[in-house]
Amino acid sequence: MSSHSIALHAHKDYRGSKLGIWLFLITEITLFGGMFLLYSIYRSEYPQDFHHAAAELNTLVGTVNTLILLTSSLTMALSIAGTHHGNRKLALWMLAITILCGAAFMVNKYFEWGAKFQHHLYPGSEYLLAHPKGEILFYGLYFIMTGIHGIHVLVGMVLLTVMFIKVLNQPNAKVSFVAGHGLGEIEGCRMAFVDASDKVVWKGDEVDGSVERIDVKTKFWPVKKRFHVADFNQLENSGLYWHIVDIIWIFLFPLFYLIT
Predict the structure, then answer these.
(1) Are residues 141 and 195 in the same domain?
(2) Cystine design at 171: which of 113, 147, 195, 259 (Cβ 3.0–4.6 Å)?
(3) Do 92 and 193 belong together in one domain?
(4) pLDDT tens across 120-169, in order?
């Protein structure tokens, strides 16, 4: 009688990937931090022009978008909590809601930008160039900063969609063995563990036809559908990216919509 110890996952540097996403987020903060600094300099130089230009923005739309992104941060956190507790259904629903919140944000931003273009309040338009220099700078910063933020939202939606597919397609492990009666009639057999796609993840030693009988004893522990630590790590890193996108908007909202 022999026993085997089975390890079904390979070692990966999860701390390294976590450090990598934080370093990336620092570069994002540096990017927007530079733009916030530029905004502060121009606003201190043209306070009245910034005040009049901001009055043209729709505060209600900005408020709704802020509530949407705050809600998406909550659902993102709940999705990660769902994976940690083995609740795949909760994780999928919360991820779907997060993606829909991002889509709703972009739809509102599309109509808001569309209104500005209809009123010729966009960089380079003859109508805007006739305004004071401070207002021209305000709208230049508005389109650049909210535009870059919008690109980040789109990237986040794509990233979360990939995570949704990964969670949805997480294989359910199953056990199947090859055993038989009257083994002398065949060359041999072996026990194997396969996943839901019938890919062999472990197999035992082959037994030849001289063995007359094989007894297989298995133990099963009924647990909820859980994910590997790699899936936690990938989803958590995606969540960090999404949260930083939301935090950046928390700063953009008052700077452009509430300064009046």
Answers:
(1) no
(2) 195
(3) no
(4) 998 889 999 999 999 999 999 999 999 999 999 999 999 999 999 988 87
| The two three-digit tokens of residue 128, written as one number | 């805007």
- What CA–CA distances, in Å, run from 142 to 57, 95, 136, 147, 230? 10, 29, 10, 8, 39
Residue 167 tokens, joined: 């969670």
**Beta strand segments in the chain, E:** 174-177, 188-189, 191-194, 200-203, 207-208
CA separation for the pair 42, 256 (Å, rounded): 13
- Residues in the chain, total: 260
Name the 3-class secondary structure at 5: coil
φ/ψ of residue 169, rounded to 5: -95, 10
Give pLDDT, residue 18.
80
Whether residue 21 is found in the same domain as residue 112: yes
Domain membership flag for residue 114:
yes
Question: Are the C-beta atoms of 197 and 171 separated by less than 8 Å?
Answer: yes
**pLDDT at residue number 86:** 76
If one counts the domains in the chain, the total is 2
Q: What is the pLDDT of residue 49?
A: 94
* Residue carrying structure tokens 């739809």: 107
Q: What is the mean pLDDT of residues 63-90?
A: 92
Residue-wise DSSP of 193-208: EE-TT--EEEE---EE
